[in-house]
Amino acid sequence: MARALPLLPGVLPALLTTIVTLLTFYPSVTTAQTAEEVDLDMVTRIRLEGFYRSQVMETLQHLTDVIGSRLTGSPGMDAANAWTRDKLSEWGLSDARLEGFYFGKGWSFDRVSVHMEAPRQETLIAYPRAWTPATNGLVRGQVQRITLEDEEDLEEHRGKLAGKILLMESPRELTEVTTPMLQRHDDDTLDNLINFPIPDEAEPPEPGARAKTFHFRETLNAYLQEEGVVATLYISSRDYGIVRLGAGAAHDAGAHPGVPSLQMASEHYNMLARLVEDEHTVEVSLEVVAQFHEDDLNAYNTIAEIPGTGRNADEIVLVGAHMDSWHAGTGATDNAGSVAAIMEAVRILKAIGAEPDRTIRIVLWSGEEQGLLGSRAYVEEHIATRPAPTDEAQLALPPRVRDNTWPIQPLRGHEQHVAYLNMDNGSGKIRGVYAQENSAAVPIFEAWLKPFNDLGADTVTMRNTGSTDHIPFDNVGIPGFQFVQDQMDYFTRTHHSHLDTYDYARRDDLVQASVVIAGFLYHAAMRGEPLPRKPVPVEPESD
């Protein structure tokens, strides 16, 4: 055993003076060494309820198999809004409601058939692109490959396209698969995720770029109809028979729908393009049964709460996932799995009698796939706004395609909302969380994850991640975070494709995710201080 050395005379007073000085000038030293409080008794109760009485798959099945696809503004999304509102109320959450925002016209389709009629007959795999019109029964046309990318292209082909079905993109070689179709994180990929890459020098966004894209699509759609084009075909961005699709026209009221437009399996698209290039006469017949829904131009977010019971009851911990999907599949991995997981997380907390200090609010977003519209509308209604543009050209545009204006103008809710947690990267298990460059959040999240390390959730990365509903919150200075998840076959098979169905969601992963989220929600709602914030963004300097 080591022997203590005697202190020389005068050393002890000097040492005490040094310690006091350090504590006076460096109070963060003490703060940094203070352990984050974690309620392990509550974690145990969360785990027991979540593991042994989970309802996550029942929720997922109803959203997918029973309700089906949930394109924003469609009858399917209306049904999902009503069902989730009622289910959350049934579980005991308070003030379950729908909160509307302007969206535009809804759209849905019932069926589609596509056949090559010449030089031989074959059934082709294709789905209509959203917000394009139905055919008037079965239509037929000769196939032509064309490029229409600017006004000069439109003038070159004016008067030459009546009765044609147009291949709008170049054919391409199939992608050679060199990575597994189904991917889980391993130690190497998680370690790599922790390493923070120094960002490149930021390029300011081109002013009016979104407006330019919007205007040309409107011009193109009007041109196609005026020229008497029968339909347009686009190639799927996935191979091996997977049809990945999106919108073919804008959803805004008054936007031009163009002509029937379909996304086709790459193998069939390539075949048509080769036949046309070899100067065969290629004819295709098709029928699309679809309809617009314009009785209500609003879309809706589903909202419910577990009211706070403590001194911080007016503060809000928000959790969300987007409930809207694309229309070819049933939107299981994008994003009904996440919806089911966060619904299950709040069900768990209600079932075990949790009484959070802060209010926990769940929001199921609409319009995410069209540009984070539901979460942006929520932020503008409750948290912060931006000044109206003064440029007449910008004012004439739909708000979603306008350039940002400055400064950010906080509302009362800016102080009330202390955190937003989001799930939207497929239905894979949670492996950690993106700290979104919020250094002060890292040790907090590491502590909250520790009781779930045995479930594979142990990674906190300083990296940003984007393209989902935490971004509107982060953009106005609210701590907004997305979980790190196993990708599974999200980006190889299911993302925005006709294969996005219940079969690709895995129970163990969603049970794990709901338990981890419940733990995060509880500790965010009970923490003595709100989660630390980054500075509110300011207008970037121009050259």
Topology of helices and strands:
Elements: H1 11-25, H2 27-33, H3 40-52, H4 56-67, H5 75-90, E1 94-102, E2 106-118, E3 122-123, E4 126-128, E5 139-145, H6 151-157, E6 164-167, H7 187-194, H8 209-226, E7 231-235, E8 261-264, H9 266-277, E9 283-293, E10 298-306, E11 316-322, H10 332-351, E12 359-365, H11 373-382, E13 384-385, H12 392-395, E14 409-410, H13 413-416, E15 417-422, E16 430-434, H14 441-449, E17 459-461, H15 471-474, E18 480-485, H16 490-494, H17 507-526
Parallel strand pairs: 5-6, 6-7, 7-8, 11-12, 11-15, 15-18, 16-17
Antiparallel strand pairs: 1-10, 2-3, 2-9, 4-8, 5-9, 10-12, 13-14, 16-18
Helix pairs in contact: 1-2, 3-17, 4-10, 10-17
Main beta-sheet strand count, sense and barrel state: 8 strands, mixed
Instruction: Give me the secondary-structure category.
Output: alpha/beta
Task: Going across the biggest sheet, name each strand in turn.
Answer: 1-10-12-11-15-18-16-17
Mean pLDDT: 93
Radius of gyration: 27 Å
Specify the CATH homologous superfamily of the largest domain. Answer: Zn peptidases
In the CATH hierarchy, the architecture of the largest domain is 3-Layer(aba) Sandwich
Counting structural domains, the number is 2
**Terminus-to-terminus distance:** 66 Å
**How many H/I helices?**
17
CATH class of the largest domain: Alpha Beta
CATH topology of the largest domain, anyone?
Aminopeptidase
Structure explained in plain terms:
- With 543 residues, the protein is of the alpha/beta class.
- It has two domains: 40-103 and 297-388 and 404-526, Aminopeptidase (3-Layer(aba) Sandwich), CATH 3.40.630.10; 109-175 and 210-293, Glucose Oxidase, domain 1.
- Helix content is 34%, strand content 19%.
- It has 17 helices and 18 strands.
- The protein has helices spanning 11-25, 27-33, 40-52, 56-67, 75-90, 151-157, 187-194, 209-226, 266-277, 332-351, 373-382, 392-395, 413-416, 441-449, 471-474, 490-494, 507-526, and strands spanning 94-102, 106-118, 122-123, 126-128, 139-145, 164-167, 231-235, 261-264, 283-293, 298-306, 316-322, 359-365, 384-385, 409-410, 417-422, 430-434, 459-461, 480-485.
- The strands form three sheets. The protein has an eight-stranded mixed beta sheet, with helices on both faces. It has an eight-stranded mixed beta sheet with strand order 3-2-9-5-6-7-8-4. It has a two-stranded antiparallel ribbon with strand order 13-14.
- The longest helix has 20 residues, at 332-351.
- 44% of the residues are buried.
